[in-house]
């Protein structure tokens, strides 16, 4: 009897934690969006990538990247907000990018889970992404300075910035 109850309890806990973690925003993401929404209203949207569009996203994120559905938010000024995750060295980094007129307006690190490389959270690093766009080869049009000891985290931010710009381009019907 105890074993049966134990199995049921474990099953319920697993289903609860998996359902709450999938599709829901983290506390940091909600705080960030509320802060943005305080200045202007946001409309939630989603983008479902077609096969050829997924191949474009796989250029910066890697050939094994399979995510096809992306949530994003649009401001009343037609700016888009993308919240993305990318692996640093071992753990994911959650970052937000506000894109305006096919250029990054601002970059924000929402959750940093690594032990090293936390310097990417500082404004002095993040300000480098301001007014950055991508070229036809999906490279950033401005060189982002590296941080000693945070190379993998910097590379992760670069990947997410390129992906946010590509997603913005796709969501705007390639008007960039």
Structural write-up:
With 176 residues, the chain is an alpha+beta fold. It has one domain (25-171). Helices cover 39% and strands 23% of the residues. It is built from five helices and five strands; from the N terminus they run ααβαββββαα. The protein has helices spanning 2-21, 27-39, 51-61, 123-126, 151-171, and strands at 42-48, 69-75, 80-87, 92-100, 103-112. Strands 1-2-3-4-5 form a five-stranded antiparallel sheet, sandwiched between helices. Helix 3 packs antiparallel against helix 5 (151-171). It is globular. The N and C termini lie far apart (63 Å). The model is unreliable at 4-22 (pLDDT under 50).
Secondary-structure map with pairings?
Elements: H1 2-21, H2 27-39, E1 42-48, H3 51-61, E2 69-75, E3 80-87, E4 92-100, E5 103-112, H4 123-126, H5 151-171
Antiparallel strand pairs: 1-2, 2-3, 3-4, 4-5
Helix pairs in contact: 3-5
């Amino acid at each position: 009897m105890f074993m049966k109850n134990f199995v049921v309890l474990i099953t319920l806990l697993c289903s609860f934690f998996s359902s709450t973690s999938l599709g829901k925003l983290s506390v940091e993401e909600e705080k960030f969006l509320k802060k943005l929404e305080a200045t202007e209203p946001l409309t939630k949207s989603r983008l479902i990538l077609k096969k050829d569009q997924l191949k474009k996203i796989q250029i910066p994120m890697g050939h094994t990247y399979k995510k096809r559905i992306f949530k994003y938010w649009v401001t009343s000024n037609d700016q888009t907000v993308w919240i993305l995750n990318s692996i640093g060295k071992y753990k994911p980094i959650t970052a937000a990018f506000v894109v305006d007129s096919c250029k990054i307006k601002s970059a924000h690190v929402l959750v940093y889970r690594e032990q090293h490389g936390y310097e990417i959270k500082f404004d002095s690093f993040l300000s480098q992404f301001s007014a950055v766009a991508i070229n036809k080869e999906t490279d950033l049009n401005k060189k982002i300075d590296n941080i000693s000891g945070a190379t993998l985290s910097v590379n992760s931010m670069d990947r997410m910035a390129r992906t946010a710009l590509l997603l913005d381009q796709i969501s705007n019907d390639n008007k960039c």
